[in-house]
Amino acid sequence: MKITLKLFASLARHLPAEVRSQHRIDLEIGPGTTVLDLIRHQGIPADQCAIVLVDGVWVAAAERATRVLSEGEVLAIWPPVAGG
């Protein structure tokens, strides 16, 4: 099944170079793939996934191992924000 992965700020480096400027890629995933499965498969450090949304709905860190992705969903991830 196909989902869209969006990675922002410093996490964009985990996307193929040709799509980094778009901050998104469409991926084929297997049934039963969880948010955490996809994070790990893409090589994204889980501790760098501060804000995680599926179709605009926040997914808490405790739910990422059990939240199964479905056809057509959009997984968007932002790193921790720093500022001053």
Structure description:
With 84 residues, the protein is mainly β. The protein has one domain: Ubiquitin-like (UB roll) (Roll), CATH 3.10.20.30. It has one helix and five strands, in the order E-E-H-E-E-E. The chain has a five-stranded mixed sheet, with no helix packed on it. Strand 3 and strand 4 form a beta hairpin. It is globular.
Short overview:
It holds the Pfam family ThiS. The protein is 8% helix and 26% strand.
Topology of helices and strands:
Blueprint: E1 2-7, E2 24-28, H1 35-41, E3 51-54, E4 57-58, E5 74-78
Parallel strand pairs: 1-5
Antiparallel strand pairs: 1-2, 3-4, 3-5
Defining key terms:
8% helix; Ubiquitin-like (UB roll); mainly beta
What string, H for helix and E for strand, traces the elements in order?
EEHEEE
At the fourth level of CATH, the homologous superfamily is: Beta-grasp domain
Widest sheet, order of strands: 2-1-5-3-4
Distance between the termini: 41 Å
* Quaternary organisation of the protein chains: single chain
Structure classification = mainly beta
Q: Count of DSSP helices?
A: 1
Question: What is the typical, i.e. mean, pLDDT?
Answer: 95
| Overall domain count | 1
Number of strands: 5
Our estimate of the beta-strand percent is 25-35%
CATH architecture field: Roll
Per CATH, what is the topology? Ubiquitin-like (UB roll)
pLDDT < 50 stretches: none
Pfam families: ThiS
Protein name: MoaD/ThiS family protein
InterPro entries: Beta-grasp_dom_sf, Mopterin_synth/thiamin_S_b, ThiS/MoaD-like
